Amino acid sequence: MERDRDRLHEEFDRLRDNSARRTKNRGFELAARxxxxxxxxxxxxxxxxxxxxxxxLDDVLAAFDKLRLDRPEVSEGPVGLVVIHLPGTDAYEVAAxxxxxxxxxxxxxxNHVLDAQGHMAMCPATEPIPLYGxxxxxxxxxxxxxxxxxxxxxxxxxxVAKDSGFExxxxxxxxxxxxxxxxxxxxxxxxxGGHGTAATARLLAVSGAQSVSVEVRDCLIxxxxxxxxxxxxLEKVVHAGVEVISVQAGLYARPGNTPKAFDxxxxxxLSRHPKTVIVAAAGNHGTDVPFWPAAYSWTTAVGSLTxxxxxxxxxxxxxxxxxxxxxxxxxxxPFPNGSYTYVDKTSTRFTNGHAIWSGTSFATPVVAGLxxxxxxxxxxxxxxARHIVLQEAAIxxxxxxxxxxxx
Length: 407
What we know:
Layout: H1 2-20, E1 30-34, E2 41-53, H2 57-66, E3 73-76, E4 81-85, H3 91-102, E5 108-116, E6 129-130, E7 147-152, H4 158-164, E8 172-175, E9 188-189, H5 195-207, E10 212-217, E11 224-226, H6 227-239, E12 244-247, E13 249-250, H7 260-268, E14 277-281, E15 299-305, E16 324-327, E17 331-334, E18 338-341, E19 347-350, E20 354-357, H8 364-378, H9 382-395
Parallel strand pairs: 7-10, 7-12, 8-10, 9-18, 12-14, 14-15, 15-16
Antiparallel strand pairs: 1-2, 2-4, 2-5, 3-4, 5-11, 5-13, 6-20, 17-20, 18-19
Helix pairs in contact: 5-8, 8-9
């Protein structure tokens, strides 16, 4: 137990460092709400910020006055939200005070932080391990349909794509560069480096490339992103006409609450685009506690099976809210060449352009890719293709686990 606690703290420290040094002036201070003995993290949040609906701002500012707190600076956020800036304060503590004054803790919320769901030290499994390729793939689908897909992750690295020799990366038509892969001036691979490129490969291995176009976003750079930033990216790709969105990240919210930015994203954006499907990672913590955005009814939540698909992995989240499971264990993915230091301070070198990596991050794009594949084969829209895929999962359901897809 003490070893697990120390490992969790080490991984949090690493994620906090990554968050602070994010490139493109996107760094932020990461904070955690721990349980009493600091053996579990209840949720992650961005320090110094709160969010609220723009329609509630006057009431929130009045609550600041009643509590004799200095009125904060505010700025406009995405999807009808307002960002309340509180430098030098603990955002969670201020939110609790405001909730007491307002009589409703849902009015003002922390800006929760999502982390990449590659199976890392915050979960009981290994980090990337060097391996030779190639990447296993299905044949190209046969049909007259097309699909537009977005991968919301750490971005895309063309050099890794080229080194992997995976020809289907030609379907990536638009991308933001994953520029946080290496420590500057070295070949030292940073934690989560290449995550978005790996997830994109998993998707294309199933969807095919000839009738699919892919956009890769980089909001998850460094392995973490606040909910405002990811919602802003989601809003952009939905408005751009993307039909299937694969999200390899998630968060736990304050107990009894859902994340406010995602709530507003659905009401203001996604509900007005019923032809768009979002597929999201169920998380890697071996719990049935709802993990967002996967736990929403308007997403398709994906858990992980073992490599051969005969059981749920011990670390995959589960529960009534998980829609389907597919293999996310020991997947073969493209990976940067260079040196890599594990959380336990051991190190290795990657020289073959590939790795074995585990996590619901690598199960999720398989399901997104399968939805895109059915769109091509059947000539149907994304919601119909999703329905077909979930029917297939129900037919292959695994006792004591749930709907299962064997690819």
